[in-house]
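[Discussion] Sanity-checking designs against the backbone

I'm trying to build intuition for which residues belong where. Below is a structure token string of 547 positions. I'd appreciate it if someone posts a full sequence so I can compare it with mine line by line.
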């Protein structure tokens, strides 16, 4: 799901470098054979990032497609395609296409300064080390795609706004103005209605044709799982299997229940300590303390000096209660933060700088998302306003938010801003189809974390039942992005891709039990920190797969 940053965008056109060093990939058959007239092309080029001998054979491309398929001769756009070749290719194994980092709008990290072996190593067990090619893309509008629809207006305004004490109303006005300027600039050179899941599914099928692959295995994490489901719906004959990691389902209107889901996320974070006798003794009455802290910071904000990757100097972040709630929600995407939450609350209760490190780290991570120049947040707005907002009853969502008390304050402001951004974007709404369950007959593996802050495990458990041919693996002690957090999850996905009919519940359960036991052993062997009593870790052995 989206790594939320207030939404705005900018457009960055094709660099001269791309035009200077690219060449069209030849069609299959004789080099002299002319391909049928097409409005798409796959352009091979030298990779723009460094590799070394430890990498698999790597090919880089830019895929050129019409921005609007209804008018294919008009403006063209491009998105990057990276193909990592299997070390020992198995002729019967379908390539796995990774559909991007989610968000919507998040970058995969393909940029020259960000690309690393993580791009393939994180998925090696189910691809290049298992005889299967891995193909990675940034979807249109994001990361290395051209244009990249990023709101530089928001980035500039946020740099200033978060150094000032602003009320929620003042902050909303700042970012509303950012969005207005962003849309005014971008809409001159981009059709903002052409950035959504169904169009990205069309892009993927055009790519499949250019790669001359009959059927694809699809991998979607967070929002990109919606791309996988949409593709399976729209191109059923071109998909073999799907792996959905922290899945997003089109029939769940997440904004409708954002307030309750956010409150539940905070409560899970607090419950992690409250239900642990040792932690609760060390950090008693944690919920009341968090509520008091939010109220205190709203009345008297505190400046916390942080460091983040987009500045060489310390950044004086003015922490209000509502900003703290946003920081905490983002931090709860990672299960490792749960043991830090009590320390963060206590550190901010102190008047001095002692104990501020957990807060500084969490705020720094939040600001790196806010200021990320590769985040295609304007493309994300287009997704939201096309395929989710039309199916949200905002009045009902606000009424629900009104009952969430002091911990729901940030959501109450965000709901107004989310609705306003769609008035600014003024793009057509999606047809009703885009809010309906997708019942693809293709084999599907659904991996989900019980601590996921934005995608309720109960909601996903209900939604996945519309899939007639699927496996469900729930990891109660993990949050968002299961495969990055557990090697057992990746091994399960690898076995599933090799044989989608084989039930992975029991082997994953046994693997996860051992993985958690190893984590506990490692923690016990780690020298204790300065605190006499530490908050609990998430490493408690448990059977994590659903039966």
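Best answer:
Here's mine. Compare freely.
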């Amino acid at each position: 799901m989206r790594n939320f940053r207030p939404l705005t965008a900018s457009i960055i056109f094709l660099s001269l470098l791309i035009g200077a060093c690219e060449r069209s990939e030849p069609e299959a058959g004789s080099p002299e054979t002319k391909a049928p007239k097409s409005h798409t092309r796959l352009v091979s080029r030298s990779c723009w990032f460094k590799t070394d001998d430890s990498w698999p054979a790597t090919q880089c491309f830019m895929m050129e497609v019409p921005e609007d398929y209804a008018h294919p001769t008009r403006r063209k756009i491009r998105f990057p395609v990276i193909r990592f070749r299997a070390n020992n290719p198995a002729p019967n194994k379908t390539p796995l296409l990774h559909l991007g980092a989610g968000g919507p709008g998040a970058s995969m990290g393909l940029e020259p300064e960000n690309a690393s072996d993580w791009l393939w190593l994180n998925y090696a067990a189910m691809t290049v080390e298992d005889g299967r090619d891995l193909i990675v893309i940034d979807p249109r509008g994001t990361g290395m795609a051209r244009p990249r629809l990023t709101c530089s207006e928001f980035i500039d305004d946020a740099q200033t706004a978060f150094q000032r004490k602003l009320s929620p109303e003042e902050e909303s006005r700042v970012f509303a103005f950012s969005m207005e300027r962003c849309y005014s600039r971008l809409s001159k050179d981009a059709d903002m209605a052409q950035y959504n899941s169904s169009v990205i599914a069309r892009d993927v099928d055009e790519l499949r044709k250019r790669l001359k692959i009959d059927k694809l295995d699809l991998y979607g994490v967070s929002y990109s799982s919606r791309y996988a489901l949409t593709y399976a719906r729209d191109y059923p004959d071109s998909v073999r299997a799907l792996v959905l990691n922290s899945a997003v389902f089109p029939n769940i209107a997440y904004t409708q229940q954002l307030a309750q889901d956010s409150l539940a996320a905070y409560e899970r974070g607090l419950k992690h300590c409250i239900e642990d006798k040792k932690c609760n003794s060390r950090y008693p009455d944690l919920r009341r303390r968090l509520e008091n802290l939010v109220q205190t910071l709203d009345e008297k904000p505190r400046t916390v000096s942080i460091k983040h990757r987009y500045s060489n100097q310390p950044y004086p972040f003015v922490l209000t209660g509502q900003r703290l709630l946003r920081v905490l929600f983002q931090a709860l995407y990672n299960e490792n933060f749960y043991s830090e939450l009590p320390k963060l609350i206590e550190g901010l209760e102190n008047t001095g700088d002692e104990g501020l490190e957990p807060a500084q780290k969490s705020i720094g991570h939040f600001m790196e998302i806010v200021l990320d120049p590769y985040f295609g947040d304007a493309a994300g707005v287009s997704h939201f306003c096309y395929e989710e907002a039309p199916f949200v009853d905002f009045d009902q969502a606000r009424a629900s938010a009104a009952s969430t008390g002091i911990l729901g304050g940030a959501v109450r402001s965000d709901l107004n801003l989310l609705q306003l951004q769609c008035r600014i974007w003024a793009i057509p709404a999606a047809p009703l189809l885009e809010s309906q369950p997708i019942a693809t007959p293709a084999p599907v593996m659904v991996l989900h974390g019980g601590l996921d802050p934005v995608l309720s495990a109960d909601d996903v458990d209900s939604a996945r039942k519309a899939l007639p041919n699927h496996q469900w693996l729930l990891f109660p002690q993990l949050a968002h992005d299961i495969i990055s957090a557990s090697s057992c999850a990746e091994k399960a996905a690898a076995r599933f891709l090799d044989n989608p009919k084989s039930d992975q519940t029991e082997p994953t359960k046994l693997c996860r039990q051992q993985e958690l036991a190893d984590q506990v052993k490692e923690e016990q062997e780690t020298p204790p920190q300065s605190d006499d009593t530490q908050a609990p870790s998430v490493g408690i052995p448990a059977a994590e797969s659903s039966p």
